[in-house]
Amino acid sequence: MARSIKKGPFVDGHLMHKVEAARAVNDKKPIKTWSRRSTITPDFVGLTIAVHNGKQHIPVYVSENMVGHKLGEFSLTRTFKGHSSDKKVPAPAAAPAAPAAAPAKK
Q1: Which of 13, 15, 75, 105 is least surrounded, with the fewest CB atoms within 10 Å of its CB?
Q2: Is 62 in contact with 45 (CB distance < 8 Å)?
Q3: Per-residue pLDDT at 80
């Protein structure tokens, strides 16, 4: 369910203070955050935010296309290593053609 327009997008207060401080001094260092639930606002564009994925901080460079999405969408929490390989026996090659029929004896 979407958030009310009247309330505006949700951004954790401590993250917003860090973003405002980085904007004020034009700091390009990544901003560390654990707030995956915060919505990306236009103020974040051009900054690098290190979003925690449960194990480490993943640096996310915020572009204009990301506005309106959540920070957690860009910091994956699971690593997909492929499906388990079934060691299936390859199908046998096509059987050789049957030998030509021998001529009938009289």
Answers
A1: 105
A2: yes
A3: 87
Under a CB-based contact definition with an 8 Å cutoff, are residues 49 and 58 in contact?
A: no
Give the C-alpha separation, 84 to 82, whole Å.
Answer: 6
What are 82's two structure tokens?
């492929």
pTM: 0.73
- b/e map 35-64, b = 16+ CB within 10 Å: bbebbbbeebeebebbbbbeeebbebebee
Q: Which two tokens stand for residue 96?
A: 């050789």
Angle CA 64–35–28, to nearest 5: 50
Which residues, including other chains, have CB under 8 Å from residue 60's CB and lie 6 or more apart?
Answer: 48, 49, 50, 51, 71, 74, 75
- Give the span between the Cα atoms of 91 and 65, in whole angstroms: 48
Q: Give the DSSP per-residue string, 34-69.
A: --TTPBP-GGGTT-EEEEE-SSSEEEEE--GGGTTS
User: How high is the pLDDT of residue 84?
Assistant: 81
Reduce the DSSP state of residue 33 to 3 states and report it.
strand
